[in-house]
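Q: How would the structure tokens look for this protein?
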Amino acid sequence: MRLRSRARRLGVVRDPGSIWFLGSLAVLVIGVATLNLLVPDASVLHVSRYGLTLIGKYLCYAMLALAVDLIWGYCGILSLGQAAFFSLGGYAMGMYLMREIGPRGVYGDPILPDFMVFLNWKSLPWFWYGFNHFWFALLMVILAPGLLALAFGWLAFRSRVTGVYFSIITQALTYALMLAFFRNDMGFGGNNGFTDFKDILGFNLDSDRMRVVLLAITAISLAASYVACRAIVCSRAGRVIRAIRDAEDRTRFLGYRVESFKLWVFVFSAVLAGIAGALYVPQIGIINPGEFSPINSIEVVIWVAVGGRGTLSGAAVGAVLVNYAKTYFTSALPEVWNYALGALFVLVTLFLPRGIAGLVPLLIRKRVRRARKDAQPFVVHGDTPEPSSE
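A: Here is the predicted structure in token form.
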């Protein structure tokens, strides 16, 4: 009973979409794990390691879409820099994985990663200290994007930068970080980034069991992120941030500290994006400055728009569907994929302003109208003949 009442407070029980989303996620993970570990490799139903990697990547992107939908769909903050926070979380986890390689690297140095030996670094930079501990890497996964979002958001919201101007400066932020991480003298691997990971916490990253464990952890993190976002939007603070989205000046005149609400939602979104990036790196096996690219942040906005802005579950589903389509069409029709993505965004904006998730209530309304129409009593218009007296 306590769990049920707590779930009601989080807005999960009252929302059929939440139950559907979390249930589908559980079925997906259990089914994929079963098909990978218990079904023979020669079977058609077997899910390969490549399939596990793709599904794990899609779930990480779904977490990133949740982070964007929270600030854009509910607070009206269109950020084009969430890829920066995603990448920072990925780099923090990548630094730990590089320290885990130790003397098993190409050059056999027990302390310096291979790229530092190749670039003639003599000692480990100070900002690499501590990344030989997993707990320290987890702390940096949260602190690196969180502190950057706190500093950037405080300056931007305090100056009341909104709308397209905020979008432009967030895009400039992620572009500046991309240029900085491309430099070899920054100590982050330069153009090649981090790769050739061996294990995590002593477990081999190439084993199927470890891949399934990482997939399960990603799914649990996605479910926890969804419940946390749902709790925020269903709370009193959630009503305030929706009021900020709809009428920021009026909300400020009512006495609410708009900048404070926007700041903590922005920081929370950045932390979610960082966690998604940290889960992404050990499954994909590489992190490089290309993840900072501004086009990646724009793509995330497209995922949310396609799935349904302001729906949470729709944003996550949109991320999975668009990236699955990208995986398919980049191999089948690589020349037209970018045009197809742009056309999809335009079509959704014109004909489905609420995204794919908006189709569900639309179909429900049509069925209700049809049911009401069918339930109306049959009326014969015109005069009815009088019964015969014979």
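The chain is about 65% helix and 0% strand.

The CA atoms of residues 93 and 278 lie 5 Å apart.

Upvote if useful.
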